[in-house]
Structures are given as structure tokens and as C-alpha cells.
């Protein structure tokens, strides 16, 4: 009997990185997992790797910034399984752009995928969650509260996720739907490949625990949020970041 036996979990951005790990671990814990991603070829690769029971691992090629695609996929999930217990708004994309030279396409992509996508997914999923209660997990970023130049549109979208977490927590509490969020610093996924390959030392010097986050760290936190042990926790955003920039001297205590 898995920890999430027969619960229906919808995970966006499940074709690679943290979303792929979350999908795999929820499946191993007995959940019926619905994987949404823009990249259909990657979804097929995940299926080849996991070799799941087909009726417990269902993929949808969906652009989360496209409201009608999202609604169609979630309604199909609702029809197939009759309920959704867990929604993880994980899909995200980060391209840098300074304000003076940001194109409309850049701004729309950053806000569309990282902020509007979770709104579309949550709006579509809630009707299937209300009867049994459940958990919505949002994903912000260290850049929501401690930004870099060039990360304005992405950081603003991710800061929006912190606000939406609080608003949805209150709006959905009467249905026993809890809403929580985590804000990664640097997670070891394709999104952070460049930083980890080319700027590891300078990044590690900002992280008190002096290691990058692993996708299992994300699963461990999400698994806690979705458990009975967290039944009095809602509306919260937790840093998943090794304590990044906790102080002005984050790694001074290390004898390097
Ligand atoms: N990796 C990090 O260091 C880091 C840091 C802070 C926040 N995050 C956040 O964590 C989450 C997971 O990111 P990751 O590191 O696994 O990134 P990743 O780039 O490895 O994976 C992101 C996934 O989202 C999918 N995706 C992108 N646009 C989409 C769209 N329009 N519709 C559907 N799917 C789409 C991609 O195809 C990909 O499979 C994201 O929300 C990201 O912003 C990551």
C-alpha cells in the first residue's frame, strides 16, 4: 500500500526535471498520475523509462498557457477518474530579458506559462477536488523574492504564485483543499544545467548547506505537504534552497 494509493495526482511540466521525478515518485507510492507537458516526445520517454501500468500513468501534451487545452485535458481526467486529489503546478520556463529590450512574446511567455498556466490548471481542477478535498502545490522561485537583473517577468510571475497560494488557501479551505507552495533556489534539473556546469562555485558560495537541491528534495517536501502530517498547514511558501542568501555571509562558517 503506497502513501498515495489510488489518489489522482495531476502534475504539469512532468516531461523532465522536477516534474518527471514527482510523477515517478507519486506513481511508485500508488497514485494514479496524470502527466501534462508541452513536450510530448519527453512524455513518451518518461513512459518508456518507467514502464508503468497504463491505466495509472496517463500523459497529455498540453501547453499550460493555453486555457482551452488545459480545460480539455483536465476534463478528460475528471471524466476518466471521477476525482482529482492532488494538483502540482510545476511547469515553468525561464528566459532572461531586461525590460528595455523585452519583446511582447517574451513577456507573454513568462507570464503566460508561469502565472496564467497555474491559474488555468487550478480553475479547471477545483471542481474535481471539492468533494473529497485535496492538495494544490504551487512552485515559486528564489527569484520571486530575491531577483536578478533580467529575471523581472519571471520573478513577477513567481511572486504572483506566492500571492495566489494565499488567496486560494482561503478560497478553497471550505472544501478541505489545502494550497501550499515551495520556492526552489537551484535544483539539479535541465533548467539549472548551465548554472551548475559553469557557475557552480559562485552559486555554492551563496548556499549555507553548500549543495544544490535534488529533485528528491522536491518530492520529500511535496509528499509532506500532501500528507495528513501537514493537515493544519495551508497558504504557505517554503524555501527549498539550502538556505540561499540566509545571511550576508551565507557560507562564512565553512572552513574552506
Ligand atoms: N531548477 C531550478 O533551479 C529552479 C529554480 C527555481 C524554480 N524552479 C521552478 O521549478 C519548476 C520545475 O522546473 P525544472 O527545474 O524541473 O525545469 P525544467 O526546465 O527541467 O522542466 C520544466 C518542464 O516544464 C515544461 N513546460 C515548459 N513550458 C510549458 C508549457 N507552456 N506547458 C506545459 N509544460 C511546459 C517543460 O517542457 C519541462 O518539461 C518550474 O516551475 C521552475 O520555474 C526551478
Set down the secondary structure blueprint.
Blueprint: E1 8-12, H1 17-28, E2 32-37, H2 40-50, E3 57-61, H3 67-81, E4 86-89, H4 104-129, E5 134-139, H5 152-172, E6 177-184, H6 193-198, H7 200-204, H8 215-225, E7 237-240
Parallel strand pairs: 1-2, 1-4, 2-3, 4-5, 5-6, 6-7
Helix pairs in contact: 1-8, 3-4, 4-5
The structure holds nicotinamide-adenine-dinucleotide.
Structure characterization notes:
It contains eight helices and seven strands. The model has no long low-confidence stretch (mean pLDDT 98). With 256 residues, the chain is an alpha/beta fold. A seven-stranded parallel beta sheet has the order 3-2-1-4-5-6-7, sandwiched between helices. The chain is globular. It has one domain: Rossmann fold. Helix 1 crosses helix 8 and helix 3 runs parallel beside helix 4. The site of nicotinamide-adenine-dinucleotide has 30 residues, from helix 1.
Amino acid at each position: 500500500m503506497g502513501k498515495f494509493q489510488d489518489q489522482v495526482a495531476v502534475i504539469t511540466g512532468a516531461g523532465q526535471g522536477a516534474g518527471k521525478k514527482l510523477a515517478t515518485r507519486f506513481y511508485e507510492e500508488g497514485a494514479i498520475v496524470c502527466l501534462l507537458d508541452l513536450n510530448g516526445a519527453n512524455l513518451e520517454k518518461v513512459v518508456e523509462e518507467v514502464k508503468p501500468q497504463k491505466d495509472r500513468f496517463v500523459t497529455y501534451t498540453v501547453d499550460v498557457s493555453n486555457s482551452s487545452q488545459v480545460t480539455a485535458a483536465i476534463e478528460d481526467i475528471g471524466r476518466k477518474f471521477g476525482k482529482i486529489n492532488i494538483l502540482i503546478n510545476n511547469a515553468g520556463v525561464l528566459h532572461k530579458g531586461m525590460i528595455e529590450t523585452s519583446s511582447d512574446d517574451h513577456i507573454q511567455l513568462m507570464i503566460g506559462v508561469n502565472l496564467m498556466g497555474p491559474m488555468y490548471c487550478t480553475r479547471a481542477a477545483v471542481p474535481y477536488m471539492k468533494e473529497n478535498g485535496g492538495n494544490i502545490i504551487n512552485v515559486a522561485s528564489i527569484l520571486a523574492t530575491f531577483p536578478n537583473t533580467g529575471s523581472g517577468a519571471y520573478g513577477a510571475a513567481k511572486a504572483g504564485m506566492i500571492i495566489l497560494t494565499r488567496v486560494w488557501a482561503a478560497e478553497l479551505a471550505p472544501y478541505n483543499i489545502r494550497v501550499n507552495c515551495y520556492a526552489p533556489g537551484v535544483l539539479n534539473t535541465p533548467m539549472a544545467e548551465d548554472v551548475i556546469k559553469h557557475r557552480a562555485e559562485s552559486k555554492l558560495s551563496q548556499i549555507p548547506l553548500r549543495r544544490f537541491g535534488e529533485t528528491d528534495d522536491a518530492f520529500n517536501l511535496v509528499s509532506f505537504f500532501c500528507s495528513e502530517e501537514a493537515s493544519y498547514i495551508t497558504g504557505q511558501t517554503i524555501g527549498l534552497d539550502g538556505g540561499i542568501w540566509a545571511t550576508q555571509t551565507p557560507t562564512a562558517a565553512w572552513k574552506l
